[in-house]
Design goal:
Helix 8 links the parallel strand 7 and strand 8. The chain is of the alpha/beta class and 318 residues long. The termini are far apart. It is globular. It has 13 helices and ten strands. The strands form two sheets. A six-stranded mixed beta sheet has the order 1-2-10-7-8-9, sandwiched between helices. Strands 5-4-3-6 form a four-stranded parallel beta sheet, sandwiched between helices. Helix 1 packs across helix 7, helix 4 runs parallel beside helix 5 and helix 11 packs across helix 12.
């Protein structure tokens, strides 16, 4: 990541500004008081479609629209799908979205609300990506990766561009990690502005493809178990550009148990009266696990989304 990336992020923010929300940065009294840190929250749970994914999708699909494609193919565990469906609806594009069988009902309903066509035959997110790529190749359609795409990453980086306008002096940022697009975009931008900022990657231990790939020194296949953080679950695509980006920007990568994620979600929702999804809970749990290291520091937690089914919400709260 370099200054050219920052320029591309700034251009992306200009491109998507009329279609996305500039989300607030809010002070967390509860987590600041309990930790001795100054804790700030970047509230992407308020984003259109309820997730940061709208940024990358609108940026990439605005560029694809210039080529007038017949149809755009993508795969998603849910949030990227609703983001693509939203972008397609405002840009007048046709899409087909491949989803895993275990897609959240809340996320599936949101995709359908935007009128997108879906294919739900894949066992998990990794299978959905493979099926989507094969279909796109067979029919000659462009394939839009949820994370393995420079323009998508630049779109996610607009979060960091906004943050630099909203606050200064951040010492560390906690970010949930799946395919790595979000942390690549945010970390790549913020590291150029302040090389000393610590980028902390937070993954559910039940499905932590990027964590174990970074540990191994190359992209590897791992076993995946069910996790409340469905937005970060699934395999990492071979040859993904996010691997090298993550390697260059992540200062520490930590794993969170399901109990830690559930606890973080409950604590946050009880203190802040906001809906969040499992992936946001991963970043919160990451900070709570490491908070003793950041006393008298200013910390940012990226609250990446709010899309959770009523069934999962009841499971968390109970």
């Amino acid at each position: 990541m370099n200054q050219e990336f920052c320029k591309d992020v700034d251009t992306a923010l200009e491109r998507i500004a009329t279609h996305i929300r500039k989300t607030p940065v809010e002070f967390s009294h509860s987590m600041s008081n309990s930790s001795g840190s100054k804790v700030l929250l970047k509230l992407e749970n308020f984003q259109v479609t309820g997730s940061f994914k709208a940024r990358g999708a609108v940026n990439k699909m605005s560029l694809l629209a210039e080529e007038n494609p017949e149809k755009i193919i993508t795969a998603s565990s849910g949030n990227h799908g609703s983001a693509v469906a939203y972008a397609a609806s405002i840009l007048g594009l046709d899409t087909l979205i491949f989803l895993p069988e275990n897609v959240s009902s809340a996320k599936l309903n949101k995709i359908k609300q935007f009128g997108a066509k879906v294919d739900i035959e894949s066992k998990d997110a990794g299978d959905a990506e493979k099926a989507a790529r094969d279909f796109a190749l067979k029919h000659g359609y462009p394939y839009l990766s949820p994370y393995n795409d420079y323009d998508v990453i630049a779109g996610q980086g607009t979060i960091a561009a906004e943050v630099t306008q909203q606050t200064t002096g951040i010492d560390a940022v906690f970010i949930a990690v799946g395919g790595g697009g979000l942390i690549s975009g945010i970390g790549g931008y913020l590291k150029q502005m302040n090389p000393g900022v610590q980028i902390i990657a937070c993954s559910p231990e039940n499905s932590a493809a990027m964590h174990y790939s970074l540990e191994a020194g190359n992209i590897i296949d791992i076993d995946h178990l069910a996790t409340i953080s469905d937005g970060t679950a699934g395999a990492l695509e071979k040859g993904s550009i996010t691997y090298e980006y993550c390697h260059s920007v992540i200062d520490e990568s930590i794993l969170l148990t399901e109990d830690e994620i559930f606890s973080g979600m409950r604590e946050f929702m009880n203190s802040h009266q906001m809906m969040i999804e499992g992936a946001a809970g991963v970043a919160i749990a990451g900070f709570l696990k490491m908070q003793h290291q950041f006393q008298n520091k200013q910390v940012l937690i990226v609250i990446c989304g709010a899309n959770i089914s009523s069934e999962k919400l009841m499971e968390v709260l109970s």
